[in-house]
Amino acid sequence: MKFADRTKFLKSSEIREMLKYSQMPDMISFSGGYPNPHAFPSREIVRIVEKIIDKNKFVLQYGPTEGIKELREALKKRMQKKGIKTDIDNIKITTGSQQGLFLLGEILINPGDNIVVESPTYLGALNAFSIFQPNYISIPIDENGMKIDVLEEKLKKEKIKFVYTIPTFQNPSGTTLSLDRRKYLLELAEKYDFFIIEDDPYSELRYSGENIKSIKSLDKNNLVIYLSTFSKILCPGFRLGWIIADEEIGKKFEIAKQNADLCSPNFTQYIAEEYINSGIIDKQIKLIRKMYKRKRDIMLNALNKYFPKNSKWTKPDGGMFIWVEFHEKVDVKKLLEYAIKEKVIFISGAPFYATNPKYNTIRLNFTNTEDNLIEEGIKRLSQALKKIKEGD
What we know:
Helix content is 42%, strand content 15%. By secondary structure, it is of the alpha/beta class. Strands 2-9-8-7-6-3-4-5 form an eight-stranded mixed sheet, sandwiched between helices. Helix 4 (69-81) runs parallel beside helix 11 (266-277) and helix 5 (97-108) crosses helix 10. The longest helix is centred in the C-terminal third of the chain and has 27 residues, at 280-306. It is globular. It starts with 13 loop residues before the first helix and ends with a helix. The model has no long low-confidence stretch (mean pLDDT 95).
């Protein structure tokens, strides 16, 4: 069988590959980017379904490609509270924000186009974009997010199509782009004529520090394409997200989505709309923040207690991840082999780099593990680190 040439750019997600290990008995997993099932508003969802299923004949029907009007109206009002002013025509509902990334790649990227990503960046975005054969320009990050001064030096030499960024509690690093750098990035977008794709799945999950305005809320010239999702604040099984973009991009996006899946499910959209308009969402987010803050703190304390002094890790104010960088001589591939024997797993950092991967890095998820197992998992991981030194 002869496949299209672009299929050679399709890559399996390492995170998905690790699922087989997470199912092993007594395995402690810090691998997937999963919300905790205890954070799902299961009882509220049941009540919402009972409320809407009888009164609305459209709940089980096909819907408009751009999403039902009721949900887009609810999102418009919610986005206004975050400082993002938009018309409902500029909001498009997606089947998960991953679909948004893929369809944006489809309508924006020509083979060979330069696109900028953080180093490291979200693996799902790399997988979504790579099939369209861009040329990646990787910009390093520090504790304040992407180094925009480094980006500016690149822009003096290279024309780019867009910058993709997760500015708030980044996946995988947990870092947050400072307000000054957000403004700086917008200035560069205007000066050098490129789009900014702002991926914002985590900003509602803040546990410490002050809120920082989204890049989209600072955008006065329609340079920012904004994506978000219900996966972290409702549940991932509904596969619901949204994008906000200007009219021209929105039209192309809608046609691409129509060709991909016709429409996102009406059923879950009506549930999400009631979830917002009933006020359940804000009560639930408070519960999620309390739960995840506790888990973050347990993991940070355990890292301080058990990990070697020549390693370093991020201390995120929110989100779901902690990024660890070991001494450069640590072979993470070998570490994973020992870790599996110790009954603990993580995700290697290398796949999160578009270029020049660092092989001494790992990503730890703290949200999906039970409290009493987080410290034990970090302890097991430290034992695996010691075995590397003893055995190799």
